[in-house]
Amino acid sequence: MSEIAPNIDNKKALDEFFKTISKINTELNKPGIDSKFTVPEHQEKLKEYRLRLKKCVDTDRNKIAADLVNQLEQNEKGFEDGIKAINQEIQEINDTVDFLDILGRTINTIEKIVHVVI
Fold first, then answer.
1. What is residue 5's predicted lDDT score, i.e. its pLDDT?
2. What is the torsional sign of CA 35, 39, 41, 46?
């Protein structure tokens, strides 16, 4: 259980960060924002910053996706280990049941022999 909590906290932090930069990206791409910048140099700077932020957003999306995939892979390993442990426990139970069946048949046979002899 201790491995799950850090993954959840990490995902929350990544989600919050992505929401923040996505909001900034949305604000910079609102219709009509270009008209607020009347100086051509400022318009060029706005375009440059939009492009740089878009690259950051896309890069962060990929990093977040890669991190989440990594977490899923780690969880998959844990599930596989858990399934192996459960299967081992089931096999041990099956072995115990098989032993008890053999023991029961052996005692039945011994009882039959005792009845025949007596």
1. 53
2. negative
What is the distance between the alpha carbons of residues 35 and 32, in angstroms, rounded to a whole number?
6
| 70-85 mean pLDDT | 87
Q: Is the pLDDT of residue 38 over 90?
A: no
- CB neighbours of 21 closer than 8 A, spacing ≥ 6? 53, 56, 57, 60
User: Between 6 and 25, where is the model more confident?
Assistant: 25
CA gap 95, 87 in Å, rounded: 12
pTM: 0.44
d(CA 25, CA 23): 5
CA atoms of 20 and 68, how far apart (whole Å)? 18
